[in-house]
Design brief:
Elements lengths: L2 E4 L8 H15 L1 E2 L2 E2 L19 E7 L2 E10 L4 E9 L8 H15 L4 E7 L3 H9 L3 E2 L7 H4 L1 E7 L20 E3 L19
Parallel strand pairs: 1-10, 6-7
Antiparallel strand pairs: 1-4, 2-3, 4-5, 5-6, 7-9, 8-9
């Protein structure tokens, strides 16, 4: 059974996510003004993904292996920005990204957010397809030149988000996968044609 654990990016268990996202960003986007695209992963302090500051950082663990993850951080009292959505390359095409997104949206609702925003990059068509399939509205022309647009932004109203915030402890719910820990948004480099903040 998969376990959903809310933690921080400084958790040693998060290192596979951070390392592989960095590899992916650098392979897809190369250097940005001489700086590796993976620098995006160091753009935000870990505390921005902590529950105390309105964030969350999620790992999906299966048999002691981190198979997927994602995060969100506070934009405003009503808006959370999803970031760092990742699936272990050895476990792709199993619906894990959808599990991560559902868990992040649920935790964001528990935190009182009514809107989720995210941004992905021009060279991540699989991320674009995922977010469209999950009901995110593109804030760009789907028929436009993605390289020219560069940052592909999306927005979604969170269903049932008007319930009372629950920020103490973990956002537990019944059913599978199992969730543990308390909530503590997927990201990519800021550059022309760069990956966005949620892929």
């Amino acid at each position: 059974m998969d376990e959903l654990v809310f933690t921080l990016p400084t958790d040693p268990r998060a290192q596979p996510l951070i390392d592989d996202l960095g590899r992916d960003y650098d392979e897809r986007y190369g250097l940005n003004d001489g700086i590796p695209s993976s620098f995006e992963l160091r753009r935000y302090p870990a505390e921005q993904f902590a529950a105390a500051t309105g964030g969350a950082f999620l790992l999906v663990i299966r048999d002691d292996v981190v198979v997927a993850g994602g995060a969100f951080k506070r934009v405003s009292a009503s808006v959370a920005e999803i970031k760092r959505v990742w699936t272990n390359p050895a476990y792709r095409r199993q619906g894990l990204a959808r599990i991560v997104m559902a868990a992040l949206e649920s935790a964001a609702q528990d935190a009182g957010y009514t809107v989720a925003e995210l941004t992905t990059g021009a060279r991540q068509p699989e991320a674009v397809a995922l977010y469209l399939s999950l009901g995110y509205s593109p804030l760009f022309d789907l028929d436009g030149d993605y390289e020219e647009i560069s940052y592909l932004s999306f927005r979604k109203e969170l269903a049932g988000a008007l319930r009372e915030p629950q920020r103490t402890g973990s956002p537990q719910r019944s059913g599978s996968p199992q969730r543990s820990g308390g909530p503590q948004r997927s990201g990519a480099p800021q550059r022309t044609g760069a990956p966005g903040r949620a892929s």
